Amino acid sequence: MKIFLSIFIFISSILAHNVLLSPYGKQCFFENLKKDDELAISFQVGSRDPHQSEQYTIDFYIISPNGQQVTKKTNLDHGDEMIKASTSGKYLYCFSNEKSGKVDLDVSFNIHGVVYIDANDPKSDTLDYAIQKLSQLTTDVKAEQNYLVIRERTHRNTAESTNSRVKWWSVFQIIVVAANSIFQIYYLKRFFEVQSVV
């Protein structure tokens, strides 16, 4: 029973989310951390519209319990951020599209909570600890797969948009070449016509 309880607590500390960030909008979340706990956040920005091929960016920052910015990154299309809690309390992390009126952005992110464990603690060499590590590695693989799905969707949208542009550019070139050919035939025909003066 103790093993199942520890697995449940550990799995509940690892979450995957998907939020829609509106134009000029911001979404904030928080985690309660104890001193020396680690908070790792990985995220990917995309669009749910298959016709959008642009790579969108957002701002990301983390605020400590005393109101100071621990980290701030701007113009990111994806990222992996990790902090170590210097004090216990509520750590706020935000995804911001406040500087841009771009379309609704799809932000997929994963939270990895690593609870500090003292290496000298005799409990750190137990089966519970090994199960927690295995669970963490499994969840990391799942988070990486989610990240790759978003990346694949973004790159597919870009490739399809590029293919469409190449197709229409080719059609335009064919029309220009055909028009040029017709003009040259007409012009050369007139150039070689013999006109007699009566």
TrEMBL record:
SMART domains: EMP24_GP25L (SM01190). Pfam families: EMP24_GP25L (PF01105). It is found in: Endomembrane system; Membrane. One of its GO terms (cellular component) is membrane. It is a single-pass membrane protein; Single-pass type I membrane protein. Keywords: Membrane, Signal, Transmembrane, Transmembrane helix. Residues 1-16 form the signal peptide. InterPro entries: Emp24-like, GOLD_dom, GOLD_dom_sf. The chain crosses the membrane at residues 168-188. Residues 26-113 form the GOLD domain. Belongs to the EMP24/GP25L family. This is GOLD domain-containing protein. The lineage of its organism: Eukaryota, Fungi, Dikarya, Ascomycota, Saccharomycotina.
